[in-house]
Structure formats: structure tokens, C-alpha cells
Design brief:
Elements lengths: L4 E4 L4 H17 L3 E7 L12 H25 L5 E7 L2 H8 L5 E5 L14 H8 L4 E4 L9 E4 L7 H14 L3 E7 L3 H5 L6 H25 L5 E7 L2 H9 L4 E7 L7 E2 L1 H9 L4 E5 L2
Parallel strand pairs: 1-2, 1-4, 2-3, 4-5, 6-7, 6-9, 7-8, 9-11
Antiparallel strand pairs: 5-11, 9-10
Helix pairs in contact: 3-4, 5-7, 8-9
Length: about 280
């Protein structure tokens, strides 16, 4: 297929794990793997008034990182189409530019700095918030026998997120868990107006009906996927973190507005920080 899977590397152990995840995904999907390393321009990475030899050295090191990673990937996945690119830009912009027309981009949750800067809270979060294609942040351990977990915000259009989740489950022969988490307002609790059990059960039934309506069209398109759905009375981040234990992948959405790039909601931000397995952040279409 024409849309490649892009992986960002910096020579760190976390980035190496991300490349392995991306290579396995590309092999399974019969897609090209495109491996990217960024050499940052002044004023971002190179010291002030750095001599030309320093810039040249940084480029040579970057080419070396790419060559080493690509060779390792080709040895492990000999039939995989692999390409590489050394970009001269700050890491987030350089990687985003390389994702034009890509299927998804994969990064580690930490790095050395720069892509030499894949520290969680910088490049990874900026990519997840702004990238126009799904961003997979490889963290924790993906259980090859585990389920795919997708968390839905029922106030948002969920089609792109559900499509990605059902497709991932079908591709891997994995069960799918479709979740919505909610919690009673702490303000009401503190004011003594917390709803009774009957009210909570009624709200949960309403949410479950809405959840069912959201995923039913996708269940019909992927009848081979075994799935369960649940409404959880908990903070969304807590619910996703708990569900990620023993999971293969957690899928969440990036909130969007028509006048700006995708941005992260609190649930996606929390999942990136606290999930025990890789997290896919999917922008709405």
C-alpha cells in the first residue's frame, strides 16, 4: 500500500522499541516503513556559533543511527520495504512534515533529547496533539494475546477512533473492548447532592445505549471481531489505565476544532502518561 508507517528514531532504547513495533505493524499491514531522524538546526540543537565540523558530525551521527536501525529492521523483517530520511529541523516539525500521506507515525515515549528529545511531555505529546494522522506512542508492554481497548467520549464524533480500533483488532485477531467512563461531579458530592443508585443506573443505561449506537455500524463492518462494551463509573484516565493492564493497544481520540490543529483532551493526555501498553491517538476526520 502507498501510505507508509513512519517511525521516529534517536538511538535510544525507547526509540528502538518503537521502531520494532512500527516494523511489525508495517509487515502485518504490507506497508512501507519510513524511519526518520532529526538533526536540529540553530537555535534548537546546535550550539551558538557551532563550527561547520560540528554540524557535519551531527549529520554523520544521524546517518549512522538511521543505517544501524534500518539494517536491524531488514534483518528481522527481510521482506519489508524500508526507507530512511535525515531531516534538518526541530524534531516535532521535522517528523510531522514526514507524515504527509502516511498511515500513522510511531514514536517512543522517551528519548535521548532531540529526537534527541522524545521526552514525554515534549515531542511525543506535541505530535499526538498536532499530527493529522494517528500517533502511536510505544510505552509499557504490549501483550500479544491481549485485547485492544478503545475509550470513547460520547460527546465527540467517534467514527475515526472506532475505525482504527476495530481495524487494529481485526488485523491482530484480538478482542476489542469499547469503553466509556464517567464520574459524578465532585461539586455535587461535596454539596450533598450526589445521585442515588437508581439515578446512577439510569445514567449508565443511557450511556450504554449511546455507546452501542456508536459502535454498532463498525461491528457490522467487522463481524469477525469479538467485542465487549462497558460503561465505567470512574475517571476516564483511571479506567483506561486499568484496562491497559494486559492489553495490546489503547486507542483514544485527539479533540479537534475547525480552526486549529488537533489537540489533546485530558483523557488522551492521561492515557499517554499512565497506560501500561502502547497508545494510539487518533484525530477526528
Amino acid at each position: 500500500m502507498s501510505q507508509p508507517i513512519v517511525a521516529g528514531v534517536d538511538g535510544s532504547e525507547h526509540a528502538d522499541r518503537a521502531v520494532e513495533w512500527a516494523a511489525a505493524e508495517a509487515s502485518l499491514r504490507h506497508r512501507r516503513l519510513h524511519i526518520v531522524h532529526a538533526v536540529e538546526n540553530f537555535p534548537y540543537g546546535a550550539p551558538l556559533f557551532a563550527p561547520a565540523e560540528t554540524i557535519s558530525l551531527m549529520s554523520r551521527v544521524g546517518h549512522g543511527v538511521l543505517a544501524t536501525v534500518a539494517e536491524r529492521v531488514r534483518e528481522q523483517w527481510p521482506g519489508l520495504d524500508v526507507s530512511t530520511a535525515l531531516v534538518s529541523d526541530d524534531a516535532p516539525h521535522g517528523l510531522i512534515e514526514q507524515t504527509a500521506g502516511a498511515f500513522e507515525v510511531v514514536v517512543g515515549h522517551r528519548g535521548l533529547g532531540g529526537f534527541a528529545g522524545l521526552m514525554l511531555g515534549s515531542v511525543s505529546l506535541r505530535l499526538a496533539a498536532r499530527c493529522a494522522v494517528p500517533v502511536v506512542i510505544v510505552r509499557g508492554t504490549a501483550d500479544e494475546q491481549g485485547e485492544v481497548v478503545v475509550g470513547l467520549d460520547l460527546r465527540k464524533d467517534a467514527d475515526a477512533i472506532l475505525h482504527h480500533a476495530f481495524d487494529a483488532a481485526a488485523l491482530n485477531g484480538a478482542p476489542l473492548r469499547v469503553m466509556h467512563a464517567w464520574r459524578v461531579s465532585q461539586t455535587l458530592v461535596e454539596a450533598g447532592f450526589a445521585p442515588g443508585r437508581d439515578k446512577v443506573e439510569r445514567v449508565e443505561r443511557e450511556f450504554l445505549d449511546r455507546l452501542t449506537a456508536a459502535y454498532t455500524p463498525w461491528q457490522a463492518k467487522y463481524p469477525q471481531v469479538e467485542m465487549v462494551s462497558e460503561v465505567v463509573l470512574a475517571h476516564p484516565v483511571t479506567a483506561l489505565s486499568n484496562a491497559s493492564l494486559g492489553a495490546r493497544l489503547v486507542v483514544v481520540g485527539a479533540h479537534t476544532r475547525s480552526w486549529t490543529a488537533p489537540r489533546l483532551g485530558s483523557a488522551a493526555h492521561g492515557a499517554i502518561h499512565h497506560a501500561h501498553c502502547p497508545v494510539a491517538v487518533v484525530p477526528s476526520t
